[in-house]
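Before relying on records like the one below, remember that each one covers exactly one chain. Contacts with other chains, cofactors or solvent are not represented anywhere in the record.
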Amino acid sequence: NHSIDTTNTIDGLPIYYIFNNDSATIKNFTDIGYLFLAGSDYVTIQNISQVANGVVIALSEHVLIVDNDLTTSKYSVDAIKLESYSDHAIIVNNTISVDAATRGILSYSVTNVTVRNNTITTNVSSAWGMYIYQSPNSTIEENTIITNETDSHGIYSYYNDKKINFEEIEL
């Protein structure tokens, strides 16, 4: 339980830390240093652009991430990162550009995630469009992933002991 206001910055841009704020709508922001959502359920993140250090969701269920335009250009900084106990997230209609050796979408130790109708472009080697790790019962469908470098990758799925449904993915 922390309180971090937007006077705190990273790379000269404000940090948005949202904690324990159920049913919030985070909408129409641009030029953000970092967006971190924790302990908040039924939140919508919409129409966000230019988040320098990514969007991180932790300990928050039923989060909708929709209609965002995100670019990640720092090593190991994911554009969208779902962490432990952020189950039932929906990531839909986003445009993501990966300009560093990192991932567009990382789903780590969550369940029942839906990733639908996103366009992800990887522009450097060692980049991943999606990295799905320990995320059973998830649905990945109708996404377009463009890899512009020989050593960049579309989707990596690892240690998912239960079903992941992959449908209509264009690589």
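The chain has a mean pLDDT of 91.
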